[in-house]
Amino acid sequence: MKWLMAILAKGNKERGEFALVGLMIVIIIVGVLAARALCKPYLPHQSAYTGSKKKAHTSEAIASLGAIKTAENVYYAVNGCYTPDWGKLGMTSDDFAYNQWFLPGCFGLTGSRTNFTAWCNGDNGKEQVKGVYLKLTHDGKLEACTLADIIAAEPTYVP
CA torsion, points 72, 134, 52, 40, in degrees to nearest 10? Predict the structure, then answer.
């Protein structure tokens, strides 16, 4: 840091000026640090920009899974059990009509009377969200999963 202070000190000390070069170096350093802090990749193999976009798209899926969980909790409060039946939940594809990336066919449901799992298969959505696979369990645990997990679970997708 002494070298930076030396560059900054080369301005006219009597008038309190900084050297232009020193000021430019400080601005560049701050800019690089800020850009790196704001644009971290979502996955290691992605660029920072692609990772940020994927993260933003995934938030739409998380919100939709939260709506499914809310519907299941309401059903449980009324009936004392969970259901994997979209009709009993009162949910249709219209509930996901405003999604920009994850279309209604992305969301599946499995479960029994004592638990449920809501699934999100990004491969059924738009091109930008291919490869996004999530599951949300009845206890609120949200985690990434694989396509093989979704296929093995055989969820019922939104009608």
Answer: 120
| 86 in Cβ contact with 92 (< 8 Å) | yes
> pLDDT (tens digit, 9 = 90+) per residue, 66-91?
999 999 999 999 999 999 899 899 88
Q: Give pTM, 2 decimals.
A: 0.65
User: How many domains does the chain fold into?
Assistant: 2
For residue 112, give its domain range: 59-157
* pLDDT exceeds cutoff 70 at 13: no
Query: What CATH number did the domain enclosing 143 receive?
Result: 3.30.700
Residue bearing tokens 């990434």: 144
